[in-house]
Amino acid sequence: MKNLKLAILSATLALAAGGALAQMRIEISGVGSNQIPVAVAGFADENIAPQQISAIIKADLERSGAFKLIDAGVITSMSNIDYGNWKAKGADALVVGTVAKSAAGDFEVRYKLFDTVKQSELSQLNVARAPQFTRLTAHNIADDVYLKLTGIRGAFSTRIAYVKEYDKRHYELLVADADGEGEQMALRSNEPIISPSWSPDGTKVAYVSFEQKKPVVYVQNLINRARTVVANEKGSNSSPVWAPTGNKLAVSLSKDGHTQIYTVNADGGNLKRVSNSAGIDSEANFAPDGSIYFMSDRSGGPQIYRMNGDGGEAKRVTFTGNYNISPRVSADGKTLAYISRRDGNYQLYAMDLASGQEQRLSDSTDDQYPSFAPNGKYIMYATQAGGRKSLAVVSVDGRVKQRLTTQAGNIKEPTWGPFMQ
Known about the structure:
By secondary structure, this protein is mainly beta. It has four helices and 30 strands.
């Protein structure tokens, strides 16, 4: 079953949390360049399913900014497609599907994607899943459409994690679908929770909790909820991030008097210092090749540097502006996202690492904690407007922007989960 691990994780979190919590609201602005016109038909008999699958697919595709949606009504048959008719309506592609309920109670979803220009079938998918996985099935189909029409893997079926804060007395670590739906609680605490980071296989999250009245780094298994203390040294233990191999993390520790970067096994063993400066080194992030990007004030102010995963000489990466923090590298290793303070505003920037060319991606004034989608096409970050903290998503070209808000609590510290097979 496609995305079986994600389905198991979703079900486990739902059971442990006792059901879904309040959902987020998404506001979309801007459109992508060269939008692909797609007609998404209502799936035959989809009203028998818990959620309307075609509506979820449409919302995913619209949110991406890569597609122009064309009204298609309901199509009851996936054969004998009138390609000329759909091309005349302006659609380069057509999505159709059916839903049926099996004797075992599963919902059987069949889908096909047609190319109206070449008058051919591009893809098909047949999935049978329990009712609670209806949204996941729809996201899988949207992922397939995105891949077949853009050549880039879709990230609609991935998950995000973030922290919700209520009046500085109540904190929750939450996991949700990439669209903010299906929100489930992983941890609740009366003390702050910060810096969540997904493991490469998507089954664990590392984070910092203050429940011991000091910052301590934990790793939590999201399936069985078991927790492991990874770093509880003297002083501050902060900024955990997973290595691409998934067997170790980088953390920032002040055990030697000033904060430096260390690596540590996921079980808390084999602690090793990898940065060495007279200043503050923190906020490590692994690139796909295992090298580490990090923030350091060794040049007099916070800038972003790069070093090998086991330490060694560090080379400065950012040179524009006197305050650059929170480096994050895309999955292909080509783009660096970071927060830069300029003219008193903290804003999201992206740099092409080959050319050094940078682009400002946000127009707000208090942005934090960028995190790439696993396909590298979007960046999620925390922002603040009107006294409320919320999450925002922007495409790497800056054209498509989304804001995710909730009715209660401030949401912050996002991390976008990996692809799951």
